[in-house]
Amino acid sequence: MKEILITNDDGFEAAGLLALKEALSELDGVNVTIVAPSSEKSACAHSLTLTRPLRFIKLDDGFFKLDDATPSDCVYLALHALYNNKPDLVISGINHGANLVEDITYSGTCGSAMEGVLQGIRSIAFSQFYENYSLNELGFEL
User: Fold this and answer.
1) DSSP per residue, 80-113
2) pLDDT confidence of 132, banded at 50, 70, 90?
3) What is the span of the domain harbouring residue 32?
4) Residue 142 belongs to some domain of the structure
5) How high is the pLDDT of residue 128?
6) Which residue among 6, 9, 76, 137 is least crowded, i.e. fewest CB within 10 A of its CB?
7) Is the pTM of this model over 0.85?
8) CATH number, position 82
9) C-alpha distances in angstroms, 76 versus 69, 119, 134?
10) In angstroms, rounded to a whole number, what is the distance separating the alpha carbons of residues 64 and 102?
11) What does the pLDDT look like over 18-55, one tens digit per residue?
12) Is residue 140 part of a domain?
Protein backbone atom coordinates (compact mmCIF):
# COMPACT_ATOMS: atom_id res chain seq x y z
CA MET A 1 0.00 0.00 0.00
CA LYS A 2 1.42 3.38 -1.03
CA GLU A 3 0.98 6.21 1.48
CA ILE A 4 0.39 9.73 0.15
CA LEU A 5 0.20 12.90 2.24
CA ILE A 6 -1.66 15.81 0.64
CA THR A 7 -1.67 19.46 1.70
CA ASN A 8 -2.17 22.87 0.09
CA ASP A 9 -2.05 26.59 0.85
CA ASP A 10 -5.64 27.39 -0.15
CA GLY A 11 -7.25 25.74 2.89
CA PHE A 12 -9.06 22.51 3.65
CA GLU A 13 -12.17 23.41 1.62
CA ALA A 14 -10.34 24.39 -1.58
CA ALA A 15 -11.68 22.91 -4.81
CA GLY A 16 -8.22 21.87 -6.03
CA LEU A 17 -7.50 19.92 -2.84
CA LEU A 18 -10.87 18.18 -2.96
CA ALA A 19 -10.43 17.31 -6.66
CA LEU A 20 -7.02 15.80 -5.90
CA LYS A 21 -8.47 13.85 -2.96
CA GLU A 22 -11.26 12.48 -5.14
CA ALA A 23 -8.93 11.46 -7.97
CA LEU A 24 -6.41 9.73 -5.71
CA SER A 25 -9.07 7.95 -3.67
CA GLU A 26 -10.08 6.07 -6.83
CA LEU A 27 -6.64 4.45 -7.17
CA ASP A 28 -6.10 0.91 -5.92
CA GLY A 29 -3.27 0.35 -3.46
CA VAL A 30 -3.13 3.98 -2.33
CA ASN A 31 -3.90 5.36 1.12
CA VAL A 32 -4.36 9.13 1.20
CA THR A 33 -4.04 11.34 4.26
CA ILE A 34 -4.89 15.03 4.00
CA VAL A 35 -3.63 17.65 6.41
CA ALA A 36 -4.47 21.16 5.23
CA PRO A 37 -4.54 24.61 6.80
CA SER A 38 -7.82 25.70 8.39
CA SER A 39 -7.81 28.82 6.20
CA GLU A 40 -6.13 30.16 3.10
CA LYS A 41 -2.38 30.71 3.58
CA SER A 42 -1.19 31.81 0.14
CA ALA A 43 2.24 33.45 -0.10
CA CYS A 44 3.46 32.11 3.26
CA ALA A 45 6.42 30.44 1.52
CA HIS A 46 8.15 27.78 3.63
CA SER A 47 7.30 29.27 7.01
CA LEU A 48 6.79 27.23 10.17
CA THR A 49 4.85 28.29 13.26
CA LEU A 50 7.16 28.47 16.26
CA THR A 51 5.33 30.78 18.69
CA ARG A 52 2.09 28.96 19.52
CA PRO A 53 0.69 25.43 19.69
CA LEU A 54 -1.18 24.05 16.69
CA ARG A 55 -4.16 21.71 16.84
CA PHE A 56 -5.24 18.90 14.51
CA ILE A 57 -8.99 18.86 13.85
CA LYS A 58 -10.22 15.57 12.39
CA LEU A 59 -12.81 16.11 9.66
CA ASP A 60 -13.09 12.54 8.39
CA ASP A 61 -10.99 9.38 8.24
CA GLY A 62 -7.61 10.51 6.97
CA PHE A 63 -8.72 14.14 6.57
CA PHE A 64 -7.50 16.78 9.03
CA LYS A 65 -7.28 20.52 9.16
CA LEU A 66 -4.53 22.08 11.20
CA ASP A 67 -5.88 25.11 13.03
CA ASP A 68 -4.19 28.37 11.91
CA ALA A 69 -1.20 26.52 10.44
CA THR A 70 0.96 27.04 7.38
CA PRO A 71 1.24 24.37 4.68
CA SER A 72 4.77 23.54 5.86
CA ASP A 73 3.41 23.10 9.40
CA CYS A 74 0.90 20.63 7.95
CA VAL A 75 3.62 18.50 6.38
CA TYR A 76 6.04 18.67 9.31
CA LEU A 77 3.46 17.92 12.00
CA ALA A 78 1.69 15.23 9.97
CA LEU A 79 4.99 13.41 9.52
CA HIS A 80 5.82 13.62 13.22
CA ALA A 81 2.35 13.10 14.73
CA LEU A 82 0.31 10.96 12.33
CA TYR A 83 2.78 8.60 10.68
CA ASN A 84 4.83 5.80 12.21
CA ASN A 85 6.69 5.46 8.90
CA LYS A 86 7.22 8.16 6.31
CA PRO A 87 4.70 8.31 3.46
CA ASP A 88 5.87 7.46 -0.04
CA LEU A 89 4.91 10.84 -1.47
CA VAL A 90 3.90 14.35 -0.43
CA ILE A 91 1.61 16.21 -2.84
CA SER A 92 0.83 19.89 -2.40
CA GLY A 93 -2.02 21.49 -4.32
CA ILE A 94 -3.78 21.81 -6.55
CA ASN A 95 -3.06 25.51 -6.09
CA HIS A 96 -5.55 28.18 -7.12
CA GLY A 97 -3.07 30.15 -9.27
CA ALA A 98 -0.06 29.60 -11.47
CA ASN A 99 2.99 29.78 -9.16
CA LEU A 100 5.31 30.83 -11.98
CA VAL A 101 8.81 32.34 -11.87
CA GLU A 102 9.31 34.38 -8.66
CA ASP A 103 5.93 33.19 -7.33
CA ILE A 104 7.67 29.96 -6.34
CA THR A 105 9.69 31.74 -3.65
CA TYR A 106 6.48 33.01 -2.00
CA SER A 107 4.28 29.99 -2.61
CA GLY A 108 2.99 28.00 0.35
CA THR A 109 2.19 25.24 -2.15
CA CYS A 110 5.84 24.99 -3.18
CA GLY A 111 7.06 25.57 0.39
CA SER A 112 5.17 22.57 1.73
CA ALA A 113 6.57 20.35 -1.03
CA MET A 114 10.04 21.60 -0.09
CA GLU A 115 9.34 20.61 3.53
CA GLY A 116 8.56 17.09 2.33
CA VAL A 117 11.88 16.98 0.47
CA LEU A 118 13.75 18.22 3.55
CA GLN A 119 12.13 15.37 5.49
CA GLY A 120 13.47 12.88 2.92
CA ILE A 121 10.23 12.26 1.02
CA ARG A 122 9.56 12.59 -2.69
CA SER A 123 7.32 15.61 -3.07
CA ILE A 124 5.55 17.54 -5.79
CA ALA A 125 3.56 20.77 -5.96
CA PHE A 126 0.70 21.22 -8.43
CA SER A 127 -0.70 24.58 -9.51
CA GLN A 128 -3.43 25.49 -11.96
CA PHE A 129 -3.63 28.78 -13.84
CA TYR A 130 -6.99 29.95 -15.03
CA GLU A 131 -8.40 33.38 -15.59
CA ASN A 132 -11.86 34.74 -14.82
CA TYR A 133 -13.33 31.29 -14.12
CA SER A 134 -14.16 29.34 -11.03
CA LEU A 135 -13.08 25.71 -10.76
CA ASN A 136 -16.72 24.63 -11.04
CA GLU A 137 -17.17 26.58 -14.28
CA LEU A 138 -14.14 24.82 -15.71
CA GLY A 139 -15.46 21.36 -14.80
CA PHE A 140 -12.31 20.81 -12.74
CA GLU A 141 -11.13 17.21 -13.12
CA LEU A 142 -7.88 15.29 -12.96
Assistant:
1) HHT-SS--SEEEEEEEEB---TTHHHH-HHHHHH
2) low
3) 2-128
4) no
5) 87
6) 137
7) yes
8) 3.40.1210.10
9) 11, 8, 31
10) 30
11) 999 999 989 999 999 999 999 999 989 999 999 999 99
12) no
